[in-house]
Write a structure and sequence with these properties.
This protein has five domains: 89 residues, no CATH class; 147 residues, Rossmann fold, CATH 3.40.50.410; 101 residues, Immunoglobulins (Immunoglobulin-like, Sandwich); 202 residues, 3-Layer(aba) Sandwich (Rossmann fold), CATH 3.40.50; 94 residues, Sandwich (Immunoglobulin-like), CATH 2.60.40.10. 25% of the residues lie in helices and 37% in strands. The chain is built from 14 helices and 33 strands. A nine-stranded mixed beta sheet has the order 16-15-17-18-23-22-21-19-20, covered by helices on one side. Strands 4-3-2-5-6 form a five-stranded mixed beta sheet. A five-stranded mixed beta sheet has the order 8-14-13-10-11, with no helix packed on it. Helix 1 runs antiparallel to helix 2. It starts with a helix and ends with a helix.
């Protein structure tokens, strides 16, 4: 409190006392107790009002003890139940939680995880996935810039996410408690199957299978692949103590269009405790042809290889990079990508007048715009020799096909000649151009339709930078590759537009998220947000039917069908108002990943503890864990003193006091006839 404030307070006391004395006691001959009481009330009310007007700042010293957080995280997945460790998991964490000495030193907080990380409410050990990497990410968010230990009760078997061994932050000391029997149990396991989603008719497609052995004795096993009741591949695979893993590569024939379902099996003469992991289903969609795309360019540019890699991520696409003078015929291609066309492209445009192939024209600083104006009727280019960098702006009302904004506004600029681009036909623009913060009328990525003929225009070069930027931001090329795939899909398909489009997988693994996405467009082919979509799902074997509503998302409708048992299903999506419908089918494969484990992953948990300066513990060492936490001097509670300053005007009781004293004074005077 400052000197001036103190002087004001003293002055307010004098003034309040003086006024009270003057009104009730000065020149009063009979100074009865009543007048002294009234003078006191007047003094209190006046002084309270003066205090509120002066509004001094009151400082208070508050001492608090800040404890180190101690998150205790328990694995709530099915694998804990399969390893017969549910009882010890429940008992052990409570032993730490209820320890009084631990509670005095740490701020204990309980969490559980399966596919999600959440506060501990109830343990049922029914989770379909184990996401230990998610534990690390969530703890980072909760305890930023804090040094703390983590007690992690788990078997270490992760089924989703990145490698958790390197996920925890540096200031976190992880203390894993290994759940489950670590005794080596004989087990054969199909660990993973790598196979393309699509295969092409009359071609062979590769299947890569990773096998794993748990045991100490040499053993000979039989690995086979079945298609229905027919065994289409069989071989002998040997394992030993020093050779616990093998990879098998097999080429299978794609001889029938449609969904081909297979089962990989490994077996031996030795009886196993867990046979669930001896087989794994997989499926491949066989299609009758792939799209042949000619990427024609007279110049060399990084865009060419970036486009080829991005497009060919979809196994249905094949891109051939070729110069204009090398192409003899267009009959072998489905789509033409014309990169920065000039006069050398004249024969290509002449041939395409009869071939009528859809084109994707990409322009840039090497484009001959006078020539381009002569050979197409969609855009009119009025370009100067000056070069300019153009940024992208996503047009949310774009409706030719579904495309999310993947951060186009933050992508590097594309280089192009400066000028104006006028439209000569109806266009549908996905990306418009801007220079820095100035929005232009020029399109950057636009599409046209004339009957069955479709064209796309990208007005700028260096799109390779977009793909690289997407990978830097998302640690994946997926968003960009899907973006290019949708452009090519639009150009490959000449069929008339459908009002109802449904996206789904042909097969799902049991326990996985089963999500079906639908889009409904009105007669103007505009996305209809008010449409009412329902789906009826029928189990092909039991004929049990269930009906669900599809819920609106940002630019589509979704339904989650989690919980369906293994089997074949047919479905029908219907839009109520128009009665438009879509029929499809899928299969839920009998595969529960949490039942694949016979032992905890002790080695990875040891590595995790080592990487975080922690220590691994086993259930019989829980007392040692508690002792370690109590004796660790890195996590000592800190007494923290804070000065809390608050203005007196915030004290509501002072105003109440002034009101009460004034009211009491009035009442006493009224009662005694002094008013």
């Amino acid at each position: 409190m400052t000197t001036s404030t103190i002087l004001l307070l003293i002055l307010s006391v004098i003034i309040a006392a003086g006024l009270s004395f003057y009104q009730y006691l000065y020149k009063v001959k009979n100074q009865a107790k009543l007048y002294w009481f009234l003078a006191f009330l007047r003094f209190i009310s006046l002084f309270s009002i003066f205090l509120l007007l002066i509004n001094p700042i009151i400082s208070r010293k508050i001492n608090e003890i800040k404890k180190t957080p101690l998150p205790i995280v328990i694995d709530n997945s099915k694998s804990i139940s399969e390893l017969k460790a549910t009882k010890e998991a429940s008992e052990l964490y409570q032993k730490i939680d209820k320890n009084k000495e631990i509670a005095e030193k740490y701020d204990v907080q309980l969490f559980s995880f399966d596919d999600e990380f959440k506060s501990l409410e109830e343990l049922d050990f029914k989770g379909n996935q184990s996401h230990i990497d998610g534990v690390a990410k969530n703890l980072k968010q909760l305890y930023r810039n804090t040094n703390y230990p983590v007690v992690l009760f788990t078997d270490g078997n992760q089924t989703m996410g990145n490698d958790y061994v390197f996920s925890f932050q540096e200031n976190t000391s992880v203390l894993p408690v290994v759940l489950g029997d670590t005794t080596t149990i004989f087990d054969l396991k199909i660990n993973q199957i790598n196979v393309n989603k699509y295969a092409f008719l009359k071609n062979k497609f590769p299947v890569e299978v990773f096998l794993q052995y748990n045991g100490n004795q040499p053993i000979s096993t039989i690995f086979s692949i079945q298609n229905g009741n027919q065994t289409i591949h069989k071989q002998t695979v040997s394992f030993s103590k020093d050779k616990r893993a093998q990879s098998i590569s097999v080429l299978l024939n794609a001889d029938k269009v449609g969904i081909a379902k297979y089962k990989a099996i490994i077996s031996s003469n030795v009886k196993e405790k867990n046979t669930v992991n001896n087989a794994k289903n997989f499926a491949v969609e066989v299609i009758d042809q792939r799209s042949e795309i000619a990427l024609i360019s007279a110049i060399n540019h990084p865009d060419l290889s970036a486009l080829k890699r991005s497009i060919e991520v979809n196994q249905q696409r094949k891109v051939t990079i070729i110069k204009p003078n090398e192409i003899k015929s267009l009959q072998n291609y489905n789509v033409l990508i014309l990169y920065q066309p000039n006069t050398s492209f004249k024969t290509i445009f002449d041939q395409n007048k009869s071939a009528q192939l859809n084109t994707f024209i990409i322009t840039g600083t090497a484009t001959d715009f006078n020539f381009l104006n002569q050979v197409q009727n969609d855009l009119l280019f009025k370009m100067s020799a000056q070069k300019e960098d153009y940024l992208a702006t996503f047009e949310s009302d774009f409706n030719l096909f579904s495309q999310a904004n993947i951060g186009f506004e933050n992508f590097p600029p594309l280089e192009h000649n400066f000028g104006t681009i006028a439209t000569k036909s109806n266009i549908n623009t996905m990306l418009s151009a801007r220079i820095r913060n100035v929005q232009l009328q020029n399109p950057l990525l636009t599409f046209t339709e004339n009957g069955s003929k479709r064209n796309a225009y990208l007005l700028g070069e260096n799109i390779w930078k977009w793909r690289l930027e997407n990978n830097l931001n998302k640690k994946s090329f997926e968003d960009f590759d899907l973006f290019t795939d949708k452009i090519i899909q639009f150009l490959v398909t000449n069929a008339s537009k459908k009002n109802l489009n449904v996206t789904y997988e042909s097969f799902y693994n049991s326990g996985e998220s089963i999500e079906i996405i639908a889009e409904y467009f009105n007669k103007n082919y505009e996305f209809d947000e008010k449409s009412q979509l329902t789906i009826q799902v029928v189990n092909s074997k039991t004929k049990v039917s269930k009906k669900y509503d599809l819920l609106k998302s940002s630019n589509n409708f979704k339904v989650n069908l989690d919980g369906l048992e293994a089997g074949k299903y047919s479905f029908k999506v219907t839009e109520k108002q128009s009665n438009s419908s879509f029929l499809g089918s899928f299969e839920v494969l009998d595969f529960e990943i949490e039942k694949q484990f016979v032992n905890p992953d002790k080695s990875r948990l040891e590595q995790l503890a080592s990487n975080t300066n922690g220590t691994i513990f086993y259930p019989n060492q829980i007392d040692n864990l508690i002792k370690s936490l109590l004796e660790n001097e890195n996590y000592i509670p800190i007494q923290k003193a804070t000065i809390k300053k608050s203005p007196l005007i915030d004290w509501i009781w002072l105003l109440i006091l002034a009101i009460i004293t004034l009211a009491t004074e009035w009442f006493v005077r009224k009662y005694n006839g002094l008013l």
